[in-house]
Design goal:
By secondary structure, this protein is an all-alpha fold. It has a single domain, classed as MetI-like fold. About 80% of the residues lie in helices and about 0% in strands. Keywords: Cell membrane, Membrane, Transmembrane, Transmembrane helix, Transport. InterPro entries: BPD_transp_1_N, MetI-like, MetI-like_sf. Its main location: membrane. This is Peptide ABC transporter permease.
Length: about 300
Amino acid sequence: MLKPLAARLLEALLTLWLLATLCFVLLRAAPGGPFDAEKAAPPEVEAALAAQYRLDRPLPAQYALWLGDVVRGDLGPSFQYPDYTVNQLVGQALPVSALNGGLALLLALALGVPLGVLAALRRGRALDRVLMFGAGLGLAVPKFVAAPLLVLLFAVTLKWLPAGGWGEWRHVVLPVIALALPNLAWCARLTRASMLETLSADYLRAARARGLSETRLLFAHALRPGLLPVVAWLAPALINVVTGSAVVEQVFGIPGMGRYFVQGALNRDYTLVLGVVLVVGALIVLIGALVDALRAALDPRLREAR
């Protein structure tokens, strides 16, 4: 038991180290710097800033110092937000992104699973075609198109919800819908395909021949194995939410992780970008482990394979 856990922990730490190292190298290889401006600062000011943020040292020394700070839990100072550390910025932004992303995933599951099951039960009928057409449309429309369309409809035309900002429950509705739409579509299509395969299994035919009702077949025998692919999909769904948050938070002006990542990349705020990458990477690794544990709880064959 302890040996697989230690191996999984070592694999997670190695993944995060490689991710952070690659991001560090790519950021430093990009043209420009964190203190570049249209009007160059006096040389003594540039030298003082470089010394303050340890940019005057060789690149390997900068990497070693930064990695040592990270091991101690210090993500460093922000270059573009001098009154804040990266720890403070991430601490403010993470709950915002977690709320939006969590609600978006819950909405996708709460609607996608029932719609997928309903489409599977009505296979080939008009309702099935309508639901799958809607799911295909949800996959075809990217977030950077869906988000402005939601603003145009519900904020500008109908004036039901605010177009941006943060602080009230009304500010959460449109960003959550924009984040949830593609995941909802994926969830519905995946659930339908999995349920169709499960409902045609031999053991369900035998149970049906014994006179079990369709409702009991569905809830007692088909739903649990039919949802295994949906559980496995949760990890890539989380990645989809994380990558989509950068677009959605920019459109709606939400102070979340995605927005800080975009602003940090544009301003060459090395420590801020690296801090966001590390935190998001750690969350993805953690969610992947939780999804694996949930799959093992639902499927005894996975527990026996360990």
